[in-house]
């Protein structure tokens, strides 16, 4: 590329920053809860706002302590303050967006500490346009909070060991404790990996020097004490409030169990050693080629000069160490890698600063042309979608077959991208980096205003769940039980209908309810069974039925009551 850095003109820097902020917040108010994680996390947050219990998260009236309460508590606070204005879903999703914005800020401070302000700008623009960042900070997931606190803690430790500002240690202890309160033991573990690299550099720089600094040691003790006190305080409250069984479920089942795979729910990948390498490749798009360039340049210099800069050492330990540690666990999910995305973004920034790279110049043009073609397709989609009408769900087809505001936005995006492409080599206006990043930003904004809304019309379970619950009066609900409810279904009933459906676990009691012999319930909601007659051995009557979820992953639900006529 001709010039890889962001131009010194503040106009272009400001434009890119505004684009990144727009990506963080656009799309958080115009779509509903999506499976698999959002209904559960949203219902827990909503219930916490109702009960005020910030110690023990609960789902539809039952304790649910897979994760500590920090993210849910933050979301509950925004529900109270913003919910009346933007709705509960918008307020909760705003929580993730804020954590995303704060993660960018923490990354900027960390990158500035490592290599200066120009490098910091490069890093956050790259991070803010990475696919993994855009995806994870638009979802209602606790990983948004985890990412912010992990990066913030690493920034504080960098200030301590690289800039000799030891007064950052107490703040590092606070952020580490918050990382623990976001997702448990994995938080401090993900911080410990880059901390080891920073501490190693500090030891190397202070070799032979007198390191018996009582204040420095005291500040480390204070840092550890803050972490232990805040984390331990929640553990003690959990033990007192929830009892030994609930504490065991949190620690042994969910924390230790996820490492061994015994507590995972459909996330076993024990035979996939390259799972997180593949995830890294997808999450770092469209900047993946720069990571590859960075890796080759680091090892080339190691082989030739036997040297490695402190920035490269920290990022190598952080990125490779995180992938290695996560790969050891039997339970694997792509979202677990999101706290390490700032490391990969800074790798890309280092590669850009060492350029120009002819191969990346070719790739950047290819990517920009690809984005433009996609936006052209979205602009004219209403005129071509009829060719595939049979394969598209009805609600989605109705939206994308109508030429509207989203198509005008896509058309505007095409004009912007064509202008940047036609002026790619023109000097004096902006650098190729700016054009590449801006086209990527425009692409994301167009996707949020068009295709995401079409997907939401199909993925949303709100209307189907509310329609089904509308058949059951408020007076009848105390006498209705649930069978085979997933966590998602329990969450949807609570979130959309304000109904914590009591769950029946024994088949014998299901039969007793249908026979009219149960003292508490007279009917039952059956969720996702292949055959009702296999479950119920006597006469029954289907009072109402529904289809919650998308057309490919619909969840059939039935409200069943005992009666003489058998309705198959």
Question: What does the model show?
Answer:
The structure is a single chain. By secondary structure, the protein is mainly α. Helices cover 64% and strands 5% of the residues. The protein has three domains: 31-353, no CATH class; 358-459, no CATH class; 462-561, D-Maltodextrin-Binding Protein, domain 2 (3-Layer(aba) Sandwich). It has helices spanning 10-25, 38-51, 70-86, 88-115, 117-128, 131-136, 143-163, 169-183, 186-205, 214-260, 275-283, 288-305, 310-328, 341-353, 358-384, 394-400, 405-422, 432-449, 451-459, 462-469, 487-497, 507-514, 532-535, and strands spanning 58-59, 62-63, 480-483, 503-504, 523-527, 541-548, 555-561. Strand 1 (58-59) and strand 2 (62-63) form a beta hairpin. It is globular.
Compile the SSE list and pairings.
Layout: H1 10-25, H2 38-51, E1 58-59, E2 62-63, H3 70-86, H4 88-115, H5 117-128, H6 131-136, H7 143-163, H8 169-183, H9 186-205, H10 214-260, H11 275-283, H12 288-305, H13 310-328, H14 341-353, H15 358-384, H16 394-400, H17 405-422, H18 432-449, H19 451-459, H20 462-469, E3 480-483, H21 487-497, E4 503-504, H22 507-514, E5 523-527, H23 532-535, E6 541-548, E7 555-561
Parallel strand pairs: 3-4, 3-5
Antiparallel strand pairs: 1-2, 5-7, 6-7
